[in-house]
Amino acid sequence: MDTKEEKSNLPVKEEISPEVKDDTEEVVETTPKEVVEDDSDKEVTQENENENENEKENEKEDEKEKENTSKKSSSSSLNKPKSILRKRKTEEEEENSESFSDEMSSISSIKKKHIEFSDDNIVYTLEREEEEEEEGDEEEVEDGQNFNKSLVNSVMVIVKRYLLFAIVISAGFCFSYYSYNKNKKPFSSHQRTGAIIGRSEQKQAPIQWEKPVEETEKKTPLIPIKSLTLTDFLNAETKTESVLLEETTESVEGGRKSKRAEKEKSFKRIVAVGDVHGDFRKLASVLYTAKLIDPYTDWIAEDTLLIQTGDLIDRGSDTIPIFDLMLKLREQAHKMGSEVYILLGNHEVMNLQEDYRYVTRGDVMSFGGLYTRKREFALTGKYGKLLREEMNTTMIIDDTLFVHAGLNTAYAKAGVDQINNYVHYILQNYPAEQLFYATVFGNDGPFWTRLMALGEEEYTCEELDSVLEILEVKRMVVGHTVQENGRINTRCKGKLIMIDVGLSEFYGGNFAYLEIFNDKQEVWAVYKNDVRERIN
Q: What is residue 249's DSSP assignment?
């Protein structure tokens, strides 16, 4: 009974400070109610122990959750959203946290808050690290994709280039195979539009370069061209005849031989045109202005002689139309009592020597290729016959000597016809590679010399007077050396007339031709718009 009353009379437990608590404990130890106070203390200590155990269990569960979340985030950070890393509280944890918050002391609450704050920090750092890892992974993926794309593009570019190169090589191989195969017919010019060879000639066999030379070597033993001089040729038994000029007679004056045509017709008008160099339009314009052809390029002049002083070809691309025009005009002019003569120039000789330094790509393509062009300039080719047999080196018409570059005393003593025969003989009997050794094709010969055009005035005029006296003419007309002022110039008191004004567009496309009236004994230089300048 006493104990019950004492329990009922006990005061309500209040929160006291630590100092007060110590005093009470001392008092309790001295009071006789020792048993009751011990029981209450045991209950308090049990509650504290339970609270501590719960806190430890909560901390262990939190650590387990953190470990699980970190494992999950590391395994599925690329596929799962970031929110999975954040702490998710279950219903039991919420209930426990509420009960703990009611029963915990101030110290335990502060400790819990600190743990929660530290947990948030851990989550934040984990999220930050996962974001950086995701960004790094995305950059690596993008870099890998870009690298793959660039690698594929580079491989495709290389494949395309090598494929194009292979196509070009294979095309060239096929072309060369079908062009040069001995068992098949080569490409010929008559397969093109604007055929060079007529329909009646299409069935003829391909031309072989070596055969003409071999046949001539069997028929006629040749003097080595290195030692074949003009004097040796004149004394040789085998001689050719000039085609354009008729048979000649020899007249000996003062021990010097001079050849003149036995039957020469004197024309009322002579028109001389300089170097054309592959420019068909300028040639046609000059002939039309001189009233030699009509707008359809047909011959219309009577009692007129046209002479071209060489270098019709090279530097331009109109070899075929130029040669075809001159051949057509030669036939038409002859029917109307006129004549057309073409002289050999150094560029015609170079093509016969197979020296193609000044041949343009367009000119080669106009023939259908270099092989076809060579065939046309061969010994039996259309233009090869013209150059080797019919085009002369020099000519005397009335009282004027015409030559491409000039003529010195040594050649003048031989005579005009013998010079032409000598050149024809070499061109018809020797292969291209040996033509370089002929002295007549050297720097002092009639195709290359520049003595008359550029030599010193005193010496040049003395040499010119000697040549004119030997050949019994009044003047010499030359081309070859382009006049820089684009006009027809003279030297030695009008005895040397230089008519290469640069007609071709390659040299500026100047316009001029020489006109001689035999009945009036007048020599005129004619320019564009019929502007005239008298020379003699």
A: E
What pLDDT does residue 146 have? 72
86 near 123, Cβ under 8 Å? Answer: yes
Neighbouring C-alpha atoms within 13 Å toward the C-beta of 534: 5
Size (the chain), residues: 536
pLDDT for the residue numbered 224:
60
Using DSSP, state whether 395 is helix, strand or coil. Answer: strand
CB 134 within 8 A of CB 82: no
CA–CA dist 167, 158 (Å, integer): 14
Nearest to 346 by CA among 229, 441, 452: 441
70: pLDDT confidence band, cut at 50, 70 and 90? low
Q: What DSSP letter does each residue of 143-190 carry, written as one string? A: HHHHHHHHHHHHHHHHHHHHHHHHHHHHHHHHHHHHHH-TTSPPP-GG
Q: Check if the beta carbon of residue 426 is closer than 8 Å to that of residue 228.
A: yes
Distance (Å, whole) CA 47 – CA 40: 11
Residue 411: pLDDT above 90? yes
Report, in angstroms and rounded to the nearest whole number, the Rg of the chain calculated over CA atoms: 57
Neighbours of 443 (CB within 10 A): 11
Tell me the average pLDDT across 30-44.
49
Record the pTM.
0.57
CATH fold for domain 210-242+269-534: Purple Acid Phosphatase; chain A, domain 2 (3.60.21)
C-alpha–C-alpha distance, residues 334 and 265, integer Å: 12
Residue corresponding to tokens 């919420």: 94
- How is residue 166 written in tokens? 């292979």
**Is residue 503 within 8 Å of residue 282, measured between CB atoms?**
yes
Confidence of residue 451 (pLDDT cuts 50, 70, 90): very high
Domain ranges of the chain: 2-136, 210-242+269-534
Alpha helices in 430-530 (DSSP H): 451-454, 457-471
What's the pLDDT score for residue 83?
A: 44
Say what the pLDDT of residue 29 is: 43
**Cα 52-56-58 angle, rounded to 5 deg:** 115
pLDDT digits (tens, 9 = 90+) for 156-209: 888 877 787 788 787 777 766 655 454 433 333 333 333 333 333 333 333 333
Closest CA to 399 of 256, 267, 535: 267
